[in-house]
Design brief:
Length: about 500
């Protein structure tokens, strides 16, 4: 392949040297056959050198392979979010479909069992939650929205295929271009993958997370508990100051928490998607700039050489450069995966640290209302940490992230679900504190471990591959500059 695109003749040059008065040593075309006779030849050669150097710098960032990885990651996140929304459909036999055809039917045709919108307090008074139910799915509001379980339904998310979601970059159009044009497709674009260590991406007993129900499509009832209503309910029931009342109503508040945490998780997925789309836009701009340079670069080479290699050395160097670029681009694609995982783990650790600070603060607060509000803020940050950890594991499906375990994650989810009613029970509060402290410590260690592992393994490999590309590109550039300059003479 000549240059960066496939516009050049890739046929091998003659093996035997040319002889005769018109031949030039080391070249396969006599000067009389060279097409370039313009007077601005020197400027054209200088422009070629400038473009080649600029392309080399931009290629080092691997925008094409990174773009393909980013596109595949977005498709995967969207698929995962749709599953949490309950938008996945199954092909069921429809009685109205003829000739044995099937029609997509949602898996949630049965009316849901609505969570209670009121309960009885100790004085046998009915207590209602304002705005608890809604006819349609409402926008997410703060951190206390709740969903409904399906009656007798299965809350499982569908089996996940074991294959990874990230494609390897294809041969260059340049290889950067081919990888970007195939982005997401090579790996089954958006297919669901199993987490690297099997901890995340699957629920306990077929449920999402710690038994958290799915959110139904908008044509089903969805319950929603605004934050202030939940605070008022907890205050009126006295669950944060009275141990007996907390024990009596813990299942009810656990139901509210499970559903609220589920919708908080959906919001976290949406935010991660939005951040990833910003990254995608940046990569697309870099790739578009690089592709434009490829066009001008290949045009100059074709204009000077007439579509053929001008020496055996040029052909050999170009072939070696393509191989080196292919290795570098594959490592660049993997580099983006590790970048995604590293950022998510860092966000996970930061959220865990913030939630631990808030949980410790709960113990020092005397005002019950402020105590509940602080606990809800803790719950929100902790859920954000758990979702970030899940996404981090999904972004590197074949890497087992150290210091994380399924057992500990389930313990954290359980404590987060029963957080409101555990405040009044000092023994449970201390147990929850120990769980949160261990979790915060481990995810911080995991984040540090990932960056250290990256700096010891993938980063040096990529730098060596990039250095190899730079050396070959410079050698080929200098050789072409020499033979292109000689073409005028």
């Amino acid at each position: 392949m000549m240059g960066c695109n496939s516009s050049m003749d890739t046929n091998s040059v003659l093996n035997e040297p040319l002889g005769g008065a018109g031949a030039v040593s080391g070249l396969n075309l006599p000067p009389s056959q060279w097409p370039l006779t313009q007077t601005n030849h020197a400027e054209v050669v200088c422009e070629f050198v400038r473009l080649d150097e600029t392309i080399g710098k931009l290629e080092g960032a691997c925008p094409g392979p990174r773009l393909a990885t980013c596109e595949a990651w977005i498709e995967h996140l969207q698929t995962r979010r749709n599953e949490l929304l309950g938008l996945d459909t199954v092909q069921l036999k429809s009685p109205n479909a003829g000739n044995g055809t099937t029609a997509p039917v949602t898996a949630f045709d049965q009316p849901p069992t609505v969570l209670p919108s009121h309960i009885m307090d100790d004085n046998h008074r009915e207590m209602y939650i304002d705005g608890f139910t809604a006819e349609q799915a409402l926008p997410y509001n703060n951190n206390n929205a709740v969903a409904i379980r399906a009656s007798g339904g299965d809350n499982s998310i569908g089996q996940q295929p074991s294959n990874g979601f990230l494609p390897l970059p294809a041969k260059r159009m340049s290889s950067q271009g081919a990888a970007a044009s195939n982005g997401g497709g090579g790996g089954g674009g958006g297919s669901v993958v199993t987490a690297g260590n099997g901890n995340m991406g699957k629920g306990d007993g077929g449920a999402i997370g710690n038994g958290v129900p799915r959110l139904f499509p908008s044509n089903n009832l969805v319950t929603k508990t605004p934050s202030q209503d939940l605070v008022n309910l907890a205050l009126n029931l006295g669950v944060v100051v009275d141990l007996n009342k907390a024990s009596t109503h813990e299942d009810f508040f656990a139901q509210l928490s499970e559903s609220a945490l589920h919708l908080m998780g959906l919001r976290c997925y949406t935010e991660i998607l939005e951040h990833t789309k910003v990254r995608l836009k940046t990569l697309m701009e870099s790739y578009a700039e690089l592709n434009e340079l490829y066009v001008h670069h290949d045009g100059i080479i074709a204009f000077i050489s007439g579509g053929t290699y001008m020496s055996r050395l040029e052909e050999r160097l170009d072939s070696q450069l393509e191989v080196a670029r292919d290795v570098r681009d594959k490592l660049g694609s993997t580099l983006e995966q590790w970048r995604i995982c590293g950022l998510l783990l860092r966000a996970c650790a930061n959220s865990a640290t913030q939630s631990l600070k808030q949980w410790r603060k709960v113990k020092t607060i005397i005002n019950p209302k402020e105590k509940i509000e602080t606990a809800l803020a803790c719950r929100k940050d902790l859920q954000a940490s758990l979702v970030s950890l899940e996404c981090a594991q999904l972004s590197l499906p074949h890497v087992e992230i150290k210091y994380t375990s399924n057992r500990q994650i389930l313990a954290v989810k359980h404590c987060n679900t029963y957080m409101i009613t555990d405040i009044a029970n000092m023994a449970r509060y201390e147990h929850t504190s120990k769980v949160f402290i261990a979790y915060e410590s481990n995810v911080s260690k995991a984040s540090t471990w990932l960056y250290e592992t990256f700096n010891k393994t993938l980063r040096p490999d990529f730098e060596r591959a990039e250095e190899r590309v730079k050396d070959l590109a410079k050698t080929l550039r200098d050789h072409r500059e020499e033979i292109f300059t000689f073409a005028r003479k």
